[in-house]
Amino acid sequence: MQLKRQNGFTLVELTIALAIFAFLLLVMTEGVLQLYRIYEAGHETRDTQEAARGVAQQITDDTHNAMAVAAGTYNGQGTICLYQTIQQDQSTLNGVEYYVAAHDTSGGPLSSSPAIHRTFVSAPYTSSSPPGCPNPASPPVADSVITSNSTVINVFQTNTEAPAPPNVIPRLMTMKISVESAYAQQPGDYIADPSNPGFQQCASGSNAQYCSITNIQMAALARAGTSL
Amino acid sequence: MKRHLCSQSGDTLIEVVVSLAILAVTLVTSFDIANRSYSEGFQSREHTQAVFLAQEQVEKLYAFRNNLITAAIAANSSTPVMQPTPSNFGYCAAAAGCHFDPGSSTPSSGPAQPIIFGGITYHVVIGPLATPAINVTNDQGSFVATVSWSSSVGTGQTAANTGDTGTNENTTTLDAILVDNRGTIPRDCSVVGSSQCS
Question: Of chain A residues 201-220, which have a CB less than 8 A from chain B?
Answer without folding.
Answer: 201-202, 213-220
